[in-house]
Amino acid sequence: MKRKMIMTLNLLHLPARARTVAEQIKAVVRLHQRGVVDLARPDLVLRVARDNKSYGPQAALIMKAAAEHPDAPALSDERGVLTYRQLDRQSNALANALLDSGLTPGSVIAVLARDHRGLLLTANAAGRAGLRLALMNTGFAKPQFAEVAARENVRAVLHDGEFTDLLSALPDTIPRYLTWVDADREPPAGSITIEELIAGGKHIPPPPPSRPGGFVILTSGTTGLPKGAPRTKVSPLASALIVDRIPFPRRGAMVIVSPIFHTTGFGAWTVGLALANKVVLLRRFDAEATLRAIQENKAEMLVAVPTMLNRILALGPETIGRYDTSSLRTVMVAGSALSPELATRWQDTFGEVLYNLYGSTEVAVATVAQPHELRQAAGTVGRPPVTSRIALFDDEGHRIDTPNTKGRIFVRSGAPFEGYTDGRHKQIIDGYMSTGDMGHFDSAGLLFVDGRDDDMIVSGGENVYPLEVENLLVQREDVRDAAVIGVPDPDFGQRLRAFIVPAPDADPDAQAIRDYVKANLARYKVPRDVVFIDELPRNATGKVLRRELSNLPAS
User: Fold this and answer.
1) Which of 96-100, 136-140, 520-524 tops mean pLDDT?
2) How many CB atoms lie within 10 A of CB 474?
3) pLDDT digits (tens, 9 = 90+) for 92-115
4) DSSP 277
5) Span of 363-367, 457-461, 515-519 with lowest mean pLDDT
6) Nearest to 61 by CA among 233, 271, 317, 244
7) Helix and strand numbers, DSSP H then E, in the chain
8) What are φ and ψ of residue 248, in 5° steps?
9) What single DSSP character describes residue 476?
């Protein structure tokens, strides 16, 4: 421990450029330790680096796995299992078919699909063909989808049959291909499926594109139209941000229920490829089906968002006890806030397996809280992994180094952001990029997120962050879920309004809720309004859609 502290201190005192090189070396070593790269085989490392430069990381890693473990299972969905050889060959065929259809390297294609083989095949085919892939949100309304497709200059759409109506807002000249058709439904007349494209495509790799197409992941869009965050060149070292503090299985099984069109699921799947894992996919999240998938596949890892953990725990001890989940070693969550209460309850039920990842589409991985840290301080988001650095700044841009002092969270990452596709960029101070969150470090150096800086309200001259109140409310046994927002108030400027989802068979009282908050927090943090609703509006990654709450009546 002493030696590690000395090495860390020495690293901090290196000049900036030397420190960056030192961090990169440390990242490479960490990738070797985790099994992502084998430094004893530099020929293989160079081959993957070469393929990554041409085709992007997903395609390059599948090519590697197909060469080394051709008969190993690559994915499992409700239609069965594909091996790495099958995934590799079918991705080639789809890539060639898309190029033969008239698309050219550099063109943007959109995929609107749930988690299944069609989505993964599309992502790999796009990389091999040099096409830029826009990962669309399955929760889009028709106007949102049309506006994002126009902004991203989409030239073709690959989509699940259930989303056919959304595409009616696009020009008829844009080709469209079906990635999934439900067994009990006939595909629309004249439609073309990717299975048909694959059947007619050549199974050899297409010529390497002159530059990788890359991909565009959309932001959550909780406050407006989702922005596009492109990743054209992804450094192989980016995987170190995830595996440094999170253990992944090697040639094992991992269940991903976090949507792959978003950063968490996409990143976890990519690392899973590097370790030749079997990825188990569910098109729609179902709590009990998730436990069944863990048992049947002896899965060592689950990738989810916090609301999914809540729904699994809501099954109750009897239902949970029917499934053998003893194979689980890692449960990785991200995408929305993990409440202290949920973190403790999950580890009390499933053991010390929970890893809370904090980051964003823009900054990649900022910090990770490991199981022992969540026991030590249940609300923490942990510490930065290798190549990531965190800084807090006040409103004037001055750095905050004092423990337990709130500031704006900024990140300097080993996976730099290229700027939004609409030309805008995040605020940057001294090379650190804003996350849009407020937070603080405790005396042990653990980071805590106190809420979004744009969620903060000023009530009677006092700054209030709703997340603190929400974390308190969900500790009550009669509360299943809670969200707090600010609403206009003629006397105080703004006041708090709490939206409560009662626990099953519970009948909480509004005044009891207010009294509970008053007994635990400052008076100005007590919600004036308490509204009971059946469900909170959330997006696919579990973030509360606060703009929808603001439109709901106060009673």
Assistant:
1) 96-100
2) 20
3) 999 999 999 999 999 999 999 999
4) P
5) 457-461
6) 271
7) 18, 25
8) -110, 150
9) S
Residue 337 has pLDDT above 90, yes or no: no
Q: Tens digit of pLDDT for each residue in 269-294? A: 999 999 999 999 999 999 999 999 99
d(CA 545, CA 522) in angstroms, rounded, equals 26
CB 448 within 8 A of CB 339: no
Measured CA to CA, the distance from residue 40 to residue 303 in angstroms comes to: 30
Residue 309, classified by CB atoms within 10 Å of its CB into exposed (0-12), middle (13-18) or buried (19+), is buried
Fold of 56-234: Rossmann fold (3.40.50)
Euclidean distance between CA atoms 44 and 544, whole angstroms: 44
Smallest Cα–Cα separation from 352: which of 385, 325, 374, 368? 374
Q: Which residues contact 492 (CB under 8 A, 6 or more apart)?
A: 459, 460
Structure tokens at 194: 């990717």
Count of CB atoms within 10 A of residue 13's CB?
Answer: 8
CATH number of the 455-549 domain: 3.30.300.30
E strand or H helix that includes residue 33: helix 16-33
H-run or E-run covering 148: helix 142-151
- List 333's β-bridge partners, or say none: 304, 356
Which two three-digit tokens encode residue 348? Answer: 């009390």
* Alpha carbon distance, N-terminus to C-terminus of the chain: 56
Q: Where would I find the H helices in 329-484?
A: 340-350, 371-376, 466-473
Q: What is the DSSP code string of 39-57?
A: TT-HHHHHHHHHHHHHH-H
Q: Note the pLDDT tens digit of each residue in 428-479.
A: 898 898 888 899 999 999 999 988 877 777 776 777 888 889 999 999 999 9
Residue 186 has pLDDT above 80, yes or no: no
Asked whether the CA dihedral 267, 270, 276, 277 is positive or negative, the reply is positive
pTM for the full predicted model: 0.85
The token duo for 99 is 């190029």
pLDDT of residue 1: 41
3 pLDDT more than 50:
no
Domain spans in the chain, listed from the N-terminal domain onward: 56-234, 455-549
- Quote the strand ranges of 215-281, DSSP E: 215-218, 228-231, 253-256, 278-281
Query: Measured between alpha carbons, how far is residue 354 from residues 259, 309, 316 in Å?
Result: 19, 10, 19
**Which residue has tokens 């090189």?**
21
Query: HSE (CB half, 13 Å, CA atoms) of 236?
Result: 25
